[in-house]
Task: inverse folding
């Protein structure tokens, strides 16, 4: 049981393999004697680190593991420096491979290290969370956070392969799993109304982690992201649509110091807010906005900031949005929906409308 999605980027093209028990084709042949550093967090390493090391060793590679603390706080330059030192200790040269085994934080951190160590070494993504499988492992965005905001330091650096083993989702905590579903819903809003309807129809299969349902849904999300990235690899235009819900979402994470909300939870709140802005600014139908909120709730995601013990301070959130990467002269730019499956990007919203919309949905 497996599917393959091709990411077409000329000489940087690669495959995304989705299923259970997939081999790492890019390392299976011709890697004997080469060195690899597996980067994982403490939780994932306990489940899958030894197994991954044995797999690579079976390919004839000389393997070391580097384990960092779990949590968004680890996406920090402190741990970039630590991993550089581990790469030196492991004897990594320009023919070596850094393998990201874990969720979005691990992929972003390890990818940035791979992009910059020796000016770039080979990089493989082995995502173990739903969010990483459908979003962060695909497309080549890597980076770390600063105190001022999320992902403010980074590089575009494509992996040579992504292997999403759906079996790893069995050990994912319920909250982390639901967080990934937020990014799945996003794809339905920005690109594919039929996918959105399928999600509404398959809530039970999704919440129960049915592997047949997941394989098809994960593959479709990867297809969408691959199409967008192929058109705009370096985020100069249409790729911005992938940030639907993220402008407020990143601000929520920032204001809460990255320790109260998971990324997908914050994005869910951001999508509820973006839907209200869209209703006011781009004619997004009321019923579609209600469908979005209902689906997020059905999938176990928060639709009000009070759900996480954070009441939602508009002044603090608006200040945090000023440092968002898409902002211009401290004015945030939003991705807004016209209808399910169609959005516009780079939309500046009048300050009074932005504040009133926040009060309307979260007041």
Result:
């Amino acid at each position: 049981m497996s599917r393959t999605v091709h990411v077409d980027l000329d000489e940087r093209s690669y495959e995304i393999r989705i299923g259970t028990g997939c081999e790492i084709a890019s390392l299976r042949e011709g890697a004997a004697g080469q060195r690899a550093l597996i980067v994982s967090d403490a939780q994932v390493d306990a489940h899958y680190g030894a197994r991954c090391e044995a797999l690579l060793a079976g390919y004839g590679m000389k393997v070391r593991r580097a384990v960092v603390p779990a949590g968004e706080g680890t996406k920090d330059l402190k741990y970039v420096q630590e991993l550089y030192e581990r790469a030196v200790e492991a004897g990594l040269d320009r023919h070596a491979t850094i393998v990201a085994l874990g969720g979005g934080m691990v992929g972003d951190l390890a990818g940035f290290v791979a992009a910059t160590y020796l000016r770039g070494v080979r990089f493989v993504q082995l995502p173990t969370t739903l969010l990483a499988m459908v979003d962060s492992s695909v497309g080549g965005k890597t980076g770390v956070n600063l105190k001022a905001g999320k992902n403010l330091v980074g590089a575009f650096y494509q992996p040579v392969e992504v292997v999403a083993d759906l079996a790893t989702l069995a050990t994912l905590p319920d909250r982390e799993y639901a967080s990934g579903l937020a990014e799945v819903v996003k794809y339905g809003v920005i690109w594919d109304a039929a996918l959105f309807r399928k999600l509404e129809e398959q809530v039970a299969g999704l919440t129960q982690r049915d592997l047949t349902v997941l394989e098809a849904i994960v593959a479709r999300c990867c297809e969408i992201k691959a199409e967008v990235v192929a058109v705009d690899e370096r985020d100069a235009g249409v790729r911005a649509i992938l940030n639907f819900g993220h402008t407020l979402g990143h601000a929520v994470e920032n204001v809460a110091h990255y320790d109260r909300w998971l990324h997908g939870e914050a994005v869910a709140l951001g999508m509820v807010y973006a839907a209200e802005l869209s209703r006011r600014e781009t004619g997004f139908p009321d019923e579609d906005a209600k469908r979005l909120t209902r689906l997020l709730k059905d999938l176990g995601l928060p639709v009000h900031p009070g759900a996480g013990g954070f009441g939602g301070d508009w002044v603090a959130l608006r200040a945090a949005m000023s440092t968002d990467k898409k902002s211009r002269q401290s004015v945030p730019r939003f991705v807004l929906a016209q209808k399910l499956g169609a959005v516009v990007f780079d939309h500046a919203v009048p300050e009074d409308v932005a504040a009133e919309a926040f009060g309307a949905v979260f007041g």
